[in-house]
Each structure stands twice: as structure tokens, then as C-alpha cells.
Amino acid sequence: MASLLYTLGRFAARRAWLVITAWVVILGLTIGAFVAFGGALSSAVSIPGTATEKVTDQLADRFPKASGGNGTVVFRTDDGSAFSDIQKSGISGLLGNVDDVDGVRGAVDPFDTQAELADQRQQVQAGKQKVSDGRTQISQGQAQLDAAKKQLADGQAQLDAARAQAEAAGPEMLAQAQPQLAAQQAQLDAGRAELEKQQATLDRNSAELKAQAAKLDDAETLLNLSSHIRTVSEDSSTALGIVQFDKSTYETAPDEKDAVIDHVRSQLPDGVEAEFSAEFTQSVPEILGPGEVGGLVIAAVTLFVMLGTLIGAGLPLLNALIGVGVGVSASLALSGTVEMLSITPVLGVMLGLAVGIDYSLFILNRHRTQLRDGVELHDSIGLANGTSGNAVVFAGTTVFIALLALNITGIPFLGLMGTVGAVCVLVAILVAITLTPALLGLVGMRILSKKVRSRAGRNRSSVLPMKPMGTVRAVVTLVAGLAVLAVIALPALSMRLGLPDGSSEPLHSSQYKAYKIIEDKFGAGNNGPLLVVADLPHAVGEDALVAEEARIGSQLAAFDDVRAVAPIGASADDTLIAFQVIPDEGPSSVSTEQLVHDLRDASPLSGGVELGVAGNASANIDVSEKLANVLPIYLAVVVGLSLVILVFVFRSILVPITATLGFVLTVFAAFGGITAIFQWGWLAPVFGVHDPGPILSFLPILLMGILFGLAMDYQLFLVSGMREAYVHGAPARLAVRRGLRAGRVVVTAAAIIMISVFAGFVFSNSVMIQSIGFGLAFGVLIDAFVIRMLLIPAAMHLLGRAAWWIPRWLDRILPDVDVEGASLERTHGHPQVEEEPEPAAVGRS
Asked: Does residue 597 fall inside a structural domain?
């Protein structure tokens, strides 16, 4: 590989304009592909096969009316007063014809809905009063019937007594009295029949009244369960219009949502403002804002300080920008055919800029050193490409593999993010080993300052006499470093994963304002209602539907942290009933997450009713849990990959183990810092975190993949120098000092550049970008300056020669991975470093 890169570097230097033109053409083609084939980006994070998706599919199949997504339009008066009749009429009118917009099924008028709820409550109260009056009437009628029955009984007793007297008087007297007795008996029988008829009517009315009372009780139960659900605030200054989409919120096209926003805003009555929930207006983060530009400026200053020339400082930046342009535009060209998260290209920009600058810097720095040593221009470019370029290819490949490995999680959007990031890293590698040599060939010796050019070739690099690190210092460094990292990592023990809701949107955004208004006027739980589906074992008749809704609704309301329950309706076959459940707290709260689990765990309810939970809050919880479940698997893959790669590179057992442990420490320290700031709210104003909440659910996996690759970069450029010194005869502990000294300048500069680029994204308008940018910047800071420059050298010193031990059988079968291109240096006659004799006091370790 080193020889091939040497040849490629010389060719690029000699055919500079050909290489530059080729990259310009490639850039133009990828931009053209993006313009021609690119599509809209999505802000919705979803994973197929979750419990929420299964319920959503069930609704689409059996209850289509409840399956579509919806978004909330928050109307409020601009002065906080109650809506006027004209304003109410205007809002009702614009919601009434919103179904003219493509993709919209209809809308719920908040004023009609609130009025209907009030009317229903009045009707129930009126009905209960009628039932009470009816019961009074029935009671009075029963009393009258009972009195009449008593009169009949008394009459019958008198008639029976008269008949007995006649019978006692003899047959003649009985015969004379018989007609009169029969007439009186007939009259009594007729009265008794009439009373029985009246009793039957009274019993029937009583039964009907009882059934009506039961229905009214069920209706009152449902009204009481939903009493905290309002569409108009109690002060009548705010109203919630629910717009229903034909498809789920995730599947509804952004342009259809934008059309709804335009429709509403164009017809707003005077004195009324409208804000839109996150289902409408989840923001697409900007790719390059002031913070990102500031990061690039710091990177440029760092390059200028290190390299001493504007040309030298500008060349890595130019390479990185071209690489980012190609990688990101090529990826975005696929957004028309695959669903791509809006954060995906931003991740590509982050990685492309950071590694693009660093990889170009590694080659450029080696080239400058060789020019100072007197190596001919084109030969120096070839050698730099074959040595440092070889290391760049190897280091970049580790990042590439780690990002591609995100596909093994089985989570489509995460795999796509990893693939796009990997593509941008691959382009950065190709730019570094082709465009960098071409540009170096064009600028020639101007890559050095005039002062350095005047001394080129006169002074060869040499190793200054030095002593190894003190053992006491190594122990103190290792113990203190581990203690500090442990403290930093402690918050990670309480890390909660979740997805952003409206509270994490920018303060000035419509979705943030809508979230806060709903929270203030209607309760936090109204920002994340749950859709609970009750699957019945058998169909219920229409007459029994309300009673079943009241029975199940009462059981749902009995769960902890449920604020309100309201039935939405039933399927056509009356076997599926849908409810809206309003939690006490917001969609990202611990209590809402627990409520979702409690509802699912309680299934089946009494009567064999199976429960399912859906809705945006439920979907976010499912996504976060699935990501948390694959986190240990991915960590195991990355750790295993780290060990294998480093065994190949360093031909050692303990060096890979210490390097991998260092990577794990980096990851957990980064998790701790993220949790403290974005979840606990420590230093939140400094980083622009206005509403602390759960950590972005896919951030831990993403950080693992990226930080793994970057950690391997620094490990490679520092420890390979230690190994080279050891192989060339330096004592093991002295080799640690020499390797650290040889690589620390370029690694320091590279780390500062990466931190600057990543930190620029901390001030993005999206909390997703903020947390990723901070996590990467903080992770690189920990890994480069604490792990690689302090802890690893201390551990290597304490291990001494044991650090380079490897079983002979393994040493024999391992291929010779010449990462630094040492064989190329020997064959091409690069001026060798002059070795200073070892001080007498320093012996082999």
C-alpha cells in the first residue's frame, strides 16, 4: 500500500491540474445529482416493528378513522383577552375548509367541540333531572296504585263477608243476593285488572328509567373522565385546532404540512396569532451557521500557528470543504429515493470537515518536515503520501468500518446515518491522498515560510537527549487521571434516552411556543397524548358500547399519572375501541414513559380486553428503548474490532488492551458530560440548553462509532512512534517518551481542529445537533489530551517491555502491517534520523 500511495502522490504532484480538474468535475456532478434527484428531509425518527407501529397498523386496518396522524394549531389572542365572536367565526371558517389542502382529512373546531362538551354535560344533567323527576312520579304512581290495591282488597273482603252471610242465611237468600254479589265481584275484578295493567306500565317505565339512568351514569362517567380535556382554555384566550391528516404524521409529506401552515396564516382573523406543534414544523437544522463558521475560523488559526503560512493553513481547509461538498451532496442525491433524517447531512458535514482537515494536515506536516530535511519536492510529496498517507488510509478505514457497523443494529435510520458518515470519511481519505499531493505540487516550496525555506536541507531532524518519564509521575498520572474520568463519567449512570419534543426546539420557533402555550393553558400532558386501543374478545352491541367505554375508561383512569381519558370511537365491527389518554406530565417525562409500560403490562384487562398503546410519545419511547437494547451489542462489536485492529498494527497484546480500555473511558466520560449538561442542566445557559431533558436516543451509539475511529487515529499516530523507537533499539520506557514527543504536536493540532469543528455545532438551532457536537468535541478533548497523551504513556511506561509482548505463534501468523511506511523510507533513501547515543544512566527496561 505504501508504494502504491507513493506512486499516486508523485503522479498527483506532477499532474496537479488534471487531479484538481477531476475533483472539480466530481463535485459538479454530485451537486447536479443532488439538484436533480434530491428530495425532502424528514425530522421524524421511526423504527419498523415497534409496539407502537403494530397498534398503528391495527388501527389502519380496522379503524381507519383513528389511524391518521394529526397536528395541533394553537390559536391565541395577541393581547390575552377572550376571543370575540368574530374571531371565533374566523377560526372556525379557516378550519372548516382546511380539508381542501392535499393530505388533510379534516379538522376539529375547538369552539364547537368545547360547546358540544358543555351541551353534553347539560344534557346529561337535564337527563338525570328527568330521571329523578320520573322516579318521583313513579314513586307517587306506585303509592296511588298501592292505595287502590288496598281499597280493592278491602272491597273484596267486604264482598267475601257478604257472600258468607248470604250463604249462612240459606239457599234462597244466596240466590237473591247472587246477582248483586256477581256484579260487585266483576267490578272488583275489572278494577284489579286495571290496576295490574297500570302496575305493568309503571314497572315498564321504571325499567326504562333505570336503563336510562344507567346510560346517563355511563355518559356522566365518560364526561368526568375527560373533564380535564379542553379545546378552549378556561380564560377563553387560547384554542386548540386539531388538523387530521390522511396518513400518519411521519408519512405526511412536509410540503403538505407547509400548505396547512400557509392556509391557516393566510386566513387568520385580526388580533389572532397561530403557532404550530412539532408535528407540523419540526425544524431542519442548518448545515453551516455562525457557530460552525466560528469553529472553522479557530481551525484556520490553529493551522496558521502550527504551519506558519497562509497557504499551509488554507490547503487543509480547502481539501476538507471539497470533500464535504462531494460527500454530502452525493448523499443528499439519494434523499429522493430513501427517507433521510434532516440530521444526517449535518453529521456528514461534521465528520467531513474534521477528518478532512486532519488527514490533509498529517500528510502536509510530514511533507514540510521532509522539505526542511532537504528532500526533493516531488519525492517528498510521494514519501509523505506513502508514509503519513498510508497511516491516514488505515486510520480512516477504522472510522469508515465503525460507521458502517451501525448497520448491524438493524435500525434503518441509524444505519443510513452511519453509511452517509462513512461515505464522507471515505471521500476525505481519497481527497487527502490525491488532492493534497496535487495542491502541494502546485504550491511547491511556498508551503514553507521564507525563513524556513532559506534553511531547508541544512539541519537534519535529530532526536534530542531525553530521559524516560519518572515511575512515580506515571503512577500519579494514571491514578489521578482515572479518578477524574470516573467523576466525569458518574452522571452517565442516570442517563435517560429519548427523542426531542417541542420543548427542545429553538426558543423563537413556532413549535416551541406552541408547546409552552399548551403546557401553560391546558397541562403538560396535552403535548403528548397517548392513543390507547382496547381490542375486545367479542363485539358489543350499540346499546352496550357506551357502558363498555365507561368500564374500560374507568380502568384506564385508575392508572397512576393519568390526567384524563376520552373515547375516540369504535371500529365498524364494534370489536375495537380507541381512547385518548392524557398523562399528567409531558411526552419525555419519566412518568409518561412509566405509564406506557404500565398500560402495556396490564393487558389483558378484565373481560379479556387486550390493550395497545400508540401515539407520538409512545413511538418515541419505543425507539429509545430499541436503541438502548442494541447499545451493548454495538459496544461489544466496536471493542472487539478495536482489539483486532490494534493487534495487527502494534503486534502486541497489552497495547491493544490499554488502547481499548482508554476508548471505553472516553465514551463513558463523554456520556457523563452530555448527561450533566443536557439532562441535568448543569451549565445549561452556557451551551444554550433551555429545557433539559432525555439524551438523544441514538447519540450513544453514534458517539461510540465516531469516537472509536478518532481514538484509533490518535492511538496510531502516537503509539506507532513509540513502537518505531522501540524497534530501532531504544529502551521501552524511553521509546514511550520519544514516541510521545514525535507525535504530540501534530496530534495536538489535529485534536484542537476537531474540537473546534465539532464545538461549532454546539450552538446549532437544534438540540440534536447541539448534543452530538458537544459529545464529539468533549470526547475528542478527553481522548486526545487525557487518554492518549497522559494515561496511555503512563500505562506504557509502567508496563515497560511487557507492553510489546506477543506470543510467538501469533507473531508468526500476523501479517506485517507497515502503517507508517517505514519500508518505503528505507527503499527511497529518505534521510534517516540521527540517533543520539543513549545516556549512560539510562538502561534498557
From this structure: no
* Euclidean distance between the first and the last CA atom of the chain, given in angstroms as a whole number: 34
CB 62 within 8 A of CB 576: yes
What tens digit of pLDDT does each residue of 794-844 get?
999 999 999 999 898 888 888 776 666 666 666 665 544 444 333 333 333
pLDDT at residue 532, as a whole number: 93
368 close to 312: Cβ distance less than 8 angstroms: yes
Residue 195 resides in a domain: no
Residues 319-344 pLDDT 10s: 999 999 998 899 888 877 777 777 78
Measure Cα distances from 821 to 13, 374, 487, 745, 817 in Å. 19, 19, 40, 20, 9
Q: What is the mean pLDDT of residues 451-477?
A: 74
* CA 482 – CA 476 distance, rounded (Å): 10
- Domain count for the chain: 1
CATH number at 428 reads: 1.20.1640.10
732-760 and 290-307 are packed helices; what angle lies between their axes, rounded to 10 degrees? 150
Q: Using CA of residue 74, residue 78, residue 79, residue 84, what is the dihedral sign? A: negative
C-alpha cell at 429: 481519505
CA-CA distance, 553 to 562, in Å (whole number)?
A: 11
pLDDT in tens, 257-312: 889 999 999 999 999 999 999 888 755 555 556 766 777 788 888 888 887 788 88
DSSP string for 736-804: HHHHHHHHHHHHHHHHHHHHHHHHHGGGSSSHHHHHHHHHHHHHHHIIIIIIIIIIHHHHHHHHGGGGG
User: Angle at which helices 792-799 and 654-674 pack, to 10 degrees?
Assistant: 150
Nearest to 532 by CA among 52, 105, 68, 65: 52
Sequence-separated (6 or more) residues with CB below 8 Å from residue 182: none
- pTM assigned to the model: 0.81
Does the residue 574 lie in any domain?
no
Comparing CA positions, the residue from 217, 214, 202 lying closest to residue 136 is 202
Q: How far apart are CA 349 and CA 355, in angstroms?
A: 10
3-state helix, strand and coil shares in percent for the chain, rounded to the nearest 5: 70, 10, 20
Q: Which residue type is seen at 285?
A: P
Compute, in degrees rounded to 10, the torsion defined by CA atoms 45, 50, 54, 56.
Answer: -20
The verdict on residue 20 lying in a domain is yes
Question: Which pLDDT band holds residue 46 (cuts at 50, 70, 90)?
Answer: low
Provide the pLDDT for residue 790. Answer: 94
The percent of residues above 70 in pLDDT, for the chain, comes to 93
Q: Residue 5 has which C-alpha cell?
A: 500511495
Mutual orientation of helices 343-372 and 310-332 as an angle, nearest 10°? 150
Span 602-619, average pLDDT: 87
Distance of CA 300 to the CA centre of its chain: 33
Residue 101 has pLDDT above 50, yes or no: yes
Among the listed residues 343, 391, 339, the one whose alpha carbon sits nearest the alpha carbon of residue 366: 391
Instruction: Please tell me the distance from the alpha carbon of residue 38 to that of residue 284, in angstroms, as a whole number.
Output: 15
Q: Which grid coordinates are listed for 378? A: 516531488
- Please tell me whether the peptide bond between 604 and the residue prior to it is cis, using omega within 30 degrees of 0: yes
* Whether the Cβ atoms of residue 359 and residue 468 lie closer than 8 Å to each other: no
22: closest CA among 392, 381, 326, 312?
326
CB atoms within 10 A of CB 140: 10
Predicted confidence (pLDDT) at residue 18 exceeds the cutoff of 90: yes
Q: Distance between CA 614 and CA 280 in Å, rounded?
A: 19
User: pLDDT tens-digit profile of 675-700?
Assistant: 999 999 998 888 888 889 899 888 89
169-193 pLDDT per residue, tens: 888 887 888 888 889 889 988 988 9
| Cα–Cα separations (whole angstroms), residue 749 to 114, 456, 752 | 63, 23, 5
The domain of 447 spans 1-43+282-462
The amino acid occupying position 475 is V
Q: What pLDDT sits at residue 838?
A: 39
